[in-house]
């Protein structure tokens, strides 16, 4: 039986030339666990919403809708015990360090001022440091209400293959869905499609195509 | 309603050259004396100036983005509010039509126009899009880097206040530096079929390029891919694919 309203999703896409929506779900109700996990003092409580077991479970659903268990594949504790620190704002970011990371994975080097302007106008971001150095990053732009586009997902090659990319993506997506955004899109190079598919991303759904106009290409 | 395609850039040049010396009111009656049907659209010159400037160098720099088949010299429509251009906002008269009773109708492209969310809601209803909470739409517009609009302005012969109605919209989100993504392009069905959608996106792309956004992206339904290709957009550039998140749990 439903005992705690965890979150609500509004179904609407923002695609071009017509609407493309993700499946509609008005509310997500998470069923209470069985009676034996309830503390004895609450036995006989008529209002299951007040049961602490529900709140405990709700607190664990940090990745609701994003992972099968509703929990991150690698917990925050897992990360910190390995010396990784999570950041969600621009505080203490070192632009040279970040630029160096982009270059390491093959992105073109960008001007610090332009990069800073881009970051200042980015609604959601997540980056990981180890010993003060940035080793993973991802950000999402958009209107903060309906649509989000994920850019610049990078993991330092020295730290790839241990689940950091997934850790960053799951958390970024959780932050976005918590804001109520359900239309999350991205542009993926052919060699990383396999990274995004297990996270729930689908290529060209219903024949929708990503298109771009780039001054760089025309030059 | 029979109409000349109002957004052919080539026509702009030809008509401007023909009528550059005629003041607006006289021009109106001159058009009325032309043969063919009376509800004839023609391309406006800017409200504040009587000529178009040939901006060949600007055209060269963005050629390939916008395509035309005509051999007429290409001219750039001059914004009707010179101050707006300096402030970084566009305000361009795309089409002007003078009716027999003297009413002037203009279709104006703008990037700094105020959008009435209830007008927008009505427009979305008209094209058959599902309704969205008004508060959220307001927030989405506010958080957009650029909201481009097409408004129909009607000025009565008495010269009183202009009526203004929203007939098209497109918005772009951006990080203000590298990328912009265009969403929600729509044109009132009553005004479709005359090139306004093309002009809307075309002018928006120009405006974004002017602001030095080097990568303009969008997601196109299968049936509108060709529409955007004609405006200079490419599918899957360098094999890059668009991906959408579908919640599975």
Summed up, the helix count of chain A is 7
**Count of individual helical segments of chain B:** 8
Q: Which chain pair has the greatest contact? A: A-B, 74 and 62 residues
Q: Name the beta content range of chain A.
A: 25-35%
* CATH top-level class of chain B: Alpha Beta
Cα-to-Cα separation, first versus last residue of chain B:
51 Å
Number of strand elements of chain B:
8
Proportion of residues in β-strands of chain B: 15-25%
Helix fraction of chain A by DSSP (H/I, runs of at least 4): 25-40%
Structural class assignment of chain A: alpha+beta
Q: How would the global form of chain B be characterised?
A: globular
What are the low-pLDDT stretches of chain A, counting only 5+ consecutive residues below 50? Answer: 1-50
CATH hierarchy: architecture of chain B: 3-Layer(aba) Sandwich
Report the end-to-end length of chain A measured between terminal Cα atoms: 61 Å
**What share of residues of chain B is helical?**
25-40%
Q: Label the structural class of chain B.
A: alpha+beta
What is the multimeric organization of the chains shown?
heterodimer
Note down, in words, how this protein is organized:
Chain B: It comes from Selaginella moellendorffii (Spikemoss). Chain B: One of its GO terms (molecular function) is N-acetyltransferase activity. Chain B: Residues 107-249 form the N-acetyltransferase domain. Chain B: InterPro entries: Acyl_CoA_acyltransferase, GNAT_dom, NSI-like. The complex is a heterodimer of chains A (219) and B (249). Chain A is an alpha+beta fold. Chain A has 7 helices and 9 strands. Chain A has helices spanning 52-60, 76-81, 95-104, 112-120, 164-178, 193-196, 215-218, and strands at 2-7, 28-31, 84-87, 124-130, 133-142, 147-155, 183-188, 201-203, 209-214. A 5-stranded mixed sheet of chain A has the order 3-4-5-6-7. Chain B has one domain: 3-Layer(aba) Sandwich (Aminopeptidase). Chain B is built from 8 helices and 8 strands, in the order H-H-H-H-E-E-H-H-E-E-E-H-E-H-E-E. Chain B has helices at residues 9-19, 24-32, 56-62, 82-87, 117-127, 134-142, 196-210, 225-229; strands at 91-98, 104-110, 146-155, 162-174, 179-187, 215-220, 234-235, 241-245. In chain B, a hairpin with a 4-residue loop joins strand 4 (162-174) and strand 5. Chain B is globular. Strand 9 (209-214) of chain A pairs antiparallel with strand 6 (215-220) of chain B, so a sheet runs across the interface.
């Amino acid at each position: 039986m439903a005992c705690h309203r965890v979150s609500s999703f509004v179904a609407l896409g923002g695609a071009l030339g017509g609407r493309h929506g993700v499946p509609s779900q008005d509310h997500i109700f998470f069923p209470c666990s069985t009676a034996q996990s309830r503390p004895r003092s609450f036995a006989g409580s008529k209002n299951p919403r007040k049961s602490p077991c529900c709140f405990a479970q709700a607190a664990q659903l940090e990745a609701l809708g994003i992972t099968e268990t509703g929990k991150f594949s690698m917990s925050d504790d897992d990360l910190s015990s390995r010396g990784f620190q999570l950041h969600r704002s621009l505080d203490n970011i070192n632009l040279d360090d970040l630029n160096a990371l982009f270059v390491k994975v093959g992105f073109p080097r960008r001007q610090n001022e332009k990069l800073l302007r881009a970051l200042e106008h980015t609604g959601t971001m997540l980056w990981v440091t180890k010993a003060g150095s940035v080793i993973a990053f991802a950000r999402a732009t958009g209107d903060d209400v309906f649509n989000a586009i994920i850019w610049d997902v990078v993991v330092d090659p020295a730290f790839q293959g241990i689940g950091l990319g997934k850790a960053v993506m799951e958390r970024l997506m959780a932050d976005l869905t918590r804001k109520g955004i359900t239309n999350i899109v991205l542009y993926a190079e052919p060699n990383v499609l396999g990274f995004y598919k297990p996270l729930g991303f689908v290529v060209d759904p219903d024949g929708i195509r990503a298109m771009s106009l780039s001054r760089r290409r025309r030059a | 309603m029979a109409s000349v395609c109002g957004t052919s850039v080539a026509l702009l040049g030809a008509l401007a050259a023909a009528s550059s010396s005629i003041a607006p009111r006289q021009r109106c009656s001159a058009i009325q004396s032309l043969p063919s049907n009376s509800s004839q659209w023609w391309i406006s010159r800017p409200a504040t100036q009587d000529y178009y400037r040939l901006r060949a160098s600007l055209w060269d720099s963005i050629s390939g983005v916008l395509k035309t088949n005509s051999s007429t010299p290409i001219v750039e429509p001059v914004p009707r509010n010179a101050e707006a251009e300096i402030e970084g906002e566009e305000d361009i008269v795309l089409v002007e039509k003078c009716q027999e009773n003297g009413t002037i109708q203009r279709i104006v492209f703008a990037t700094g126009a105020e959008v009435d969310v209830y007008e927008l809601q009505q427009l979305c209803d008209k094209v058959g899009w599902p309704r969205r909470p008004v508060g959220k739409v307001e927030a989405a517009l506010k958080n957009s880097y650029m909201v481009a609009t097409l408004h129909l302005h009607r000025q009565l012969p008495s010269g009183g206040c202009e009526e203004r109605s929203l007939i098209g919209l497109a918005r772009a989100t951006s990080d203000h530096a590298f990328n912009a993504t265009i969403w929600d392009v729509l044109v009132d069905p009553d005004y479709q079929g005359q090139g306004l959608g093309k002009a809307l996106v075309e002018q928006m792309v120009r405006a974004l390029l002017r602001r030095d956004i080097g990568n303009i992206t969008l997601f196109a339904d299968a049936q509108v891919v060709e529409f955007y290709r004609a405006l200079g957009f490419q599918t899957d550039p360098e094999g890059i694919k668009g991906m959408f998140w579908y919640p599975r749990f």
